[in-house]
Structures are given as structure tokens and as C-alpha cells.
Design brief:
This protein is an alpha+beta fold and 141 residues long. It has two domains: 34 residues, no CATH class; 92 residues, K homology (KH) domain (GMP Synthetase, Chain A, domain 3, 2-Layer Sandwich), CATH 3.30.300.20. The chain has four helices and six strands; from the N terminus they run βββααββααβ. A three-stranded antiparallel β-sheet has the order 1-2-3. Strands 4-5-6 form a three-stranded mixed β-sheet. A hairpin with a 6-residue loop joins strand 1 and strand 2. Helix 2 packs across helix 3. The N and C termini lie far apart (35 Å).
Length: 141
């Protein structure tokens, strides 16, 4: 399979506190999506780089775990993951994944074990692992 490339663009105008930015992605999902100091550091309504990283991790892990479960003979009905990223003192230092699933014929202990194994196979987890502590809480619904 050839390499897959995805492209996104970020633009910032002005200084850190009073400036504004926008994010675009070639897919069109992000189109002139605004972000600012307030959306990043003050919880104002809008997106920010950390939220986008968390969204990417939640989506990637849900797909990776679903694939891993299927490879083990347990096709899931649903895998839902919430990713919580932490930014402290200007450094992204933690990601916590909370995943829940509906998988017929699987007990909670096996689900948790397979969730941990799948986390090691997730491309976004593997990208982030070197500079970040990743924790996981997994349970069946």
C-alpha cells in the first residue's frame, strides 16, 4: 500500500494574546476554522490544537481497537473512546483514553486486556508515546 499523506494548514495573525488563527484541511472538514488564545488557554468556545490532537487519538484508537478485536474473532458492535489531553506549563504531558464497547461474548477482563494490547498498535498512540504519558480505562457497556 502506498504512503498516505494528509494535509492541514494553520495560520496565525498577530501576537499570542490578541492574535487570531485559522485551520484548514484539504478534506474540507476544517475550513477557515478559527482558534485563538482564549480558545486554547481560557476554555472559550472554539477549537484548539490540543482538542484536535485528542479527537485524532480518540478516532484512531477506536478504529485500531475495533480492528484488533475483529482480528481476535470478536467483531464489536460499538467502540467509543473519549480522549482527554492535558496541557500544563506550556507542555502537553498526558493523554487519558476512556473506551467503552459492546462486544458479544466477551467478558470485561478480556476486553480490558485486548484494549491494552490494541493501544500499543494504535498509530496515533505510537506517535504520541515518546513525549507523553498515555493511560487507558476500558470497560464493556
Amino acid at each position: 500500500m502506498p504512503a498516505i499523506q494528509r494535509i492541514a494548514n494553520g495560520t496565525w495573525h498577530g501576537d499570542l494574546k490578541s492574535g487570531t488563527g485559522s485551520i484548514d484541511a484539504t478534506s474540507g472538514v476544517l475550513k477557515d476554522t478559527p482558534f485563538s488564545f482564549a480558545t486554547r488557554f481560557e476554555n472559550a468556545k472554539g477549537t484548539n490544537p490540543e482538542e484536535l490532537i485528542a479527537a485524532a487519538h480518540a478516532a484512531c484508537y477506536s478504529m485500531a481497537f475495533s480492528n484488533y478485536l475483529s482480528q481476535q474473532g470478536h467483531v464489536p458492535d460499538t467502540i467509543a473512546t473519549k480522549a482527554t489531553i492535558s496541557l500544563e506549563d506550556g507542555k502537553i504531558n498526558k493523554m487519558h483514553l476512556e473506551t467503552r464497547g459492546r462486544v458479544a461474548g466477551l467478558d470485561n477482563a478480556t476486553f480490558k486486556r485486548l484494549a491494552d494490547e490494541a493501544e500499543k498498535k494504535c498509530p496515533v498512540s505510537n506517535l504520541l508515546r515518546n513525549g507523553l504519558t498515555i493511560t487507558l480505562d476500558a470497560a464493556l457497556l
